[in-house]
Amino acid sequence: MRQPRPAPWTEKIPAYVPGTSKDTIAGRYGIKDPIKLASNENPLGPSPLAVQAMESAMAGAHLYPDPDAVELRAAAAEFFGCRSEEVLAGNGSDEIIDLLCRAYLTPGREVIVPGLTFSYYRIASLVCGAQVVASGMRDFHIDVDDILHKSSEKTGIVFLANPNNPTGTCLPEGEIRRLLDGLPPETLVVLDEAYAAFVRQSDFLSAVELIDSHPNVATVHTLSKSHGLAGLRVGFCVAGEPVISALARIKPPFNVNILALKAGAAALRDADFLNKTLETTWQGLDYLYAEAQKLGLAFVPSQTNFVLIRIGDGCSRVYEELLKRGIITRAMTGFGLDDYLRVSIGLPRENEAFVRALREVL
Ligand SMILES: Cc1ncc(COP(=O)(O)O)c(C=O)c1O
Question: Which of 42, 106, 143, 227 would bridge 267 by S-S if both were Cys, CB 3.0 to 4.6 A apart?
Answer without folding.
Answer: 227
